[in-house]
Design goal:
six-stranded parallel sheet; 23 helices; electron transport; 497 residues; repeat; LUD_dom; iron; disordered C terminus; 2 domains; 4Fe-4S
């Protein structure tokens, strides 16, 4: 299948948050030393898993919903150019303006220019993975525009000069005591006697944001879904801050990845059942806000939709890898992943952490720029079982590992193994020689460099005392005596004789 959205190019370097400064093993090694981080992650992911499991168990047709979600997403990617053109036409008919951004640089320039046209020096933001991906906050600040995150977790991350570590709960790596300290240090007008009681912390954030909601004329949002049939955009959230941002300002700018489009409202029904149960463990989203263009006298009077590629066309061009674009950002795969639970999101170096990040980020940037992420997994398959749209993440991880350029020593070793296994006599000799590997110990720690580098993260299999070839040869040289059962008697024949 050809790709018609343009030449498949990856996200540009030097902008946005898709590439880390260190490889995953280097960053994970430091994270594993942080006991408080691991306690925070274990508590949060365990709680979310429990809630999600209960509400999913209520639906007898959960697997059918997963099948439907997967089929709809596959259909979207098969007709993505047509759906995007249809979406553009409907948004324009409804009074909105559509902008096409090939990459992060174009998207940031478009949004910054639109805000400048309003004369505002401040914007309020709805939680958005796409704007984090392109580094929009940094671009706005460089232009003298102050972005204010209104999602509580995103606000914690912003005030703490931190980075998100989870798709759903960006501040999952912080406990309430750490949050109180951030508020005391960075939140204007906060009560010095602030406690770490969650309702008290939420009330402090509410007071801080209330004036901002009422006095800021420009909002920037992402979008969970877009309906091509009507030009409708939608955001789902749990706190009500999104509803404030999407209704109060005069100008609304939405940045949306091109894969978020759906054909019809009927398709949306499936995802409004899958998403809340998989993400927050709720039967439905507390706040689901939908808007179509501009309605005179009601809500924003200027609406701009920025359709973002930033490597998505490159992902679409890979028939095997494109299923990563099915992701609805529910974070279910993070909450069941044993690797994520122990290392946290910052180790992945990308705004998309966990199993989905390990397959999406390398494709958006080019595998060479995130070569360690496909290996950030035990391939246990828990992510595939949890994914509400049935993304086969383990298979994608193996697919991407095959695209990583392996070290020369490893390539030579694999070539030698292939040569040996293709020659029976040589393979038999290698098996006999392999018995000497017992001197390396059960875990293979006795192997010399460079083999010791391979066993640093793997246990060397214990070789059997007798191979199948040895057993077969011994059996052939000492055959067991054949047993001859007594012939069955035939009474009827005896009577005849």
């Amino acid at each position: 299948m050809s790709t018609f959205l343009g030449m498949p190019t990856t996200a540009p370097r030097g902008v946005g948050h898709l590439r880390g400064d260190r490889t995953f093993p280097e960053a994970a090694r430091d994270a594993l030393k942080n006991d408080q981080l691991r306690r925070n992650l274990r508590h949060a992911t365990t709680t979310i898993r429990g809630k999600s499991g209960k509400v999913i168990a209520e639906l007898p047709d959960w697997q059918s919903l997963r099948d439907a979600g997967s089929a709809i997403k596959a259909g979207v990617l098969a007709q993505l150019p047509e759906l995007l053109e249809q979406l553009e036409a409907r948004v324009t008919e409804a009074g909105g303006v559509v902008h096409w951004a090939a990459d992060a640089n174009e998207a940031n320039a478009i949004v910054t220019g639109l805000v400048r046209q309003t004369g505002s020096d401040r914007v309020i933001k709805v939680k958005s993975m796409a704007t984090q991906e392109i580094g929009l906050n940094e671009a706005l600040e460089a232009a003298g525009i102050t972005p204010v995150e209104t999602d509580l977790a995103e606000l914690i991350v912003q005030l703490g000069h931190d980075k998100p570590s989870h798709i759903l709960v960006p501040a999952i790596h912080r406990n309430r005591s750490e949050i109180r300290d951030i508020f005391l240090r960075a939140m204007p007008g906060v009560d010095p006697a602030l406690t770490d009681d969650p309702p008290v912390l939420a009330a402090a954030a509410r007071r801080y944001l209330r004036e901002t909601f009422l006095s800021t004329t420009v909002a920037v949002s992402g979008a969970n879904f877009a309906i091509a049939d009507t030009g409708t955009l939608g955001v789902v959230e749990s706190e009500g801050n999104g509803r404030m941002c999407l209704t109060l300002p005069d100008t609304l700018i939405t940045v949306m990845g091109i894969e978020k489009v759906l054909p019809t409202w009927r398709d949306l029904e499936v995802f409004l059942q899958l998403l809340p149960r998989s993400s927050t463990g709720e039967r439905m989203n507390p706040y689901t806000t939908m808007w179509t263009g501009v309605t005179p006298g009601d809500g924003p009077q200027k609406f701009h939709l920025v359709l973002l590629d930033n490597g998505r066309t490159a992902v679409l061009s890979d028939p095997a890898g494109r299923q990563a674009l099915h992701c609805i950002r529910c974070s279910a795969c993070l909450n069941v992943c044993p690797v994520y639970e122990r290392t946290g999101g910052h180790s992945y170096g990308s705004v998309y952490p966990g199993p989905i990040g390990a397959v999406l980020s390398p494709q958006l940037t080019g595998v060479a720029d995130n070569a360690s992420l496909p290996y950030a997994s035990s391939l246990c398959g828990a992510c595939f079982d949890a994914c509400p749209v049935k993304i086969d993440i383990p298979s994608l991880l193996v697919h991407l590992r095959n695209r990583v350029r392996h070290p020369a020593a490893e390539r030579a070793a694999m070539a030698a193994a292939a040569y040996t296994m293709d020659r029976p006599k040589l393979y038999a000799s290698a098996q006999r020689a392999a018995k000497l590997a017992r001197i390396a110990g059960r875990r293979g720690r006795g192997l010399p460099p460079p083999l010791s580098g391979w066993t640093a993260g793997r246990d060397l299999p214990e070789f059997p005392k007798q191979t199948f070839r040895d057993w077969w040869a011994e059996r052939a040289s000492h055959p067991e005596p054949a047993s001859h059962p007594e012939p069955a008697s035939h009474p009827e024949r005896a009577e005849e004789t």
